[in-house]
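Contributing new records

If you add data, match the layout below exactly. Sequence lines come first and carry their own label; structure lines follow with theirs. Keep one chain per record. Anything else will be rejected by the validation script.
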Amino acid sequence: MTQVTVTQPEKKRRRRNKAKAATAPSETQQENVGQKEALPEPASGGGEVPAETVGVAGDQVQSGDATAPQPAKKRRRGTRGKSQAVAGREAEPEAPNNVNQSGPVEEADPEPVNDGNENAQNEEDVKGAEGPSADVDDTSRNVNPADVALDYDFGSLELSTATRSALTDIGYERMTEVQARCIPLLLSGADVLGAAKTGSGKTMAFLIPAVELLYKAEFKPRNGTGVIVITPTRELALQIYGEARKLLKYHSQTHGIVIGGGNRKQEEDKLKRGVNVLIATPGRLLDHLQNTNFTFKNLIGLVIDEADRILEIGFEQELREIIKILPSKRQTMLFSATQTQKVKDIARVSTNKSPVYVGVDDHKEAATRKGLTQGYVVCPSERRFLLLYSFLKRNLKKKVIVFFSTCMSVKFHAELLNYIDIPVIELHGKLKQSKRTSTFFEFVNAERGILLCTDVAARGLDIPEVDWIIQFDPPSDPKEYIHRVGRTARGVAGAKGKALLFMLPQEVKFLHHLKYAKIPVCEFEFPTSKIANVQSQLEALIEKTYYLYKSAREAYRAYIQGYAQASLKDVFDVHSLDLEAVARSFGFTAPPKVPLKIALTGKNSRKRSRHGFNQDNPYGDAKTPPQFSR
């Protein structure tokens, strides 16, 4: 009797299981069902399910084919042993195909793939699976520009009447892409980490929200400083200050600027009276924060513009000190053309919450603007100046910027070109601040002209209608290249410009770095017959004109010293320079006697000694000193 009670339920369960097995599809049928969906093959994980099959709730797939139908009883029986959280996700309806949907993103949901890879997920599946911050790390929330519908009309923004009137006076009706993506986020109070190509209009992308922030808080001069904008260079600070003045035209808020080289006493007096919007360079700002008794405890907004450049030029420690001193309860807007680890570190310490990352150009194929035609020319050292002279002579009616690697090289070439009746102006770090300011605005307001400059003018400066960017000395890396050529083809869609890079034959490896950085360049050819052969006249001029000889000697020395400090040693190897040819490009018949503090040892020392300098002769070869006419 006892034996019957034990076996009877077992027989019934076996019969039930056989009946259910007869109604369920076979493994082959399950495979066929999967094939009908035309899903991609799974990755090399054996039974791993491809991301597209996970769709909304990745946890509902335990094993096997996700598309195989399951009997209702079996599914209920399968969920009894699971936690309520898992069972609840199985029962959830499919999320709408909308990137703006709200709701938490489950850890088990697939992360969207947006790396341009051929094996990326289907875009519709990704959109259906992700919430507004589907790609979250410990630093920022990413906004994929391709997934957000934009309204480029300034009228779509909730702005004060005073700001609207100012924008009308300036002539702004349509936003650029970075403005359309960043301004609404900033007006809503979010911290933003923005990345956009130079010349994209990001100055207004942070100035408009900053002004609106002060307007809504009803800031008065007695409240002190409410918004601080930190920028790397004096020229960029002056330019941002000019835009801020225009934007504040109909507002009651006050504005001011503190920069190195300015009158510190006047800055101090104005700060004490109350500056609501303050534009500053890092060093001078830190000086005032530590030594000037002005009110900044009510600060509600901090803007760090060109953050990568601030860090590159050695202001990281000052920036960290500034962030420590300023009130932590504020909105932060950080803009950077490149996203380095140091920039991410600054973003982490300067923002109160995870900033929204807006990468305007992340989904675009090229790192430079569309309307920019870019080319290079391979030219030996001794013919570089001849080619530059010929080019400038034929483009006197254009607006041209020529970049050099050192201040002394800018100074010499400006003196030389002006002497031989090619009018140019110069801008570099060794000029007094008043001269730098007047030169900058002179070129900004000119319809045509030639500006010789160092990289002090390569970052952020908005110089309208530049026709040509000439890089006479190559940039230190692709990032600097991008910023240099960003001085043309700026602003509105459809803007045009041209860029030309001078390269020595041994520097052509730099093209690989440009290609890797998604910078499209093509080779330009200049017929030899069209290059002015004025070398003998140049050498005679340098030999007989004392101030040009002295300037050329300093420029020659600075060029070699700067070349030795280049970061891309595989491209810019100082030991590969033919110093006799370099000397000729500066108007010498032989390398001049100058101190070159370059360590040359072993094979390189022996190999290069014939070119003018080695360990025993650090001054290089020199002829009898020339006799100058007085």
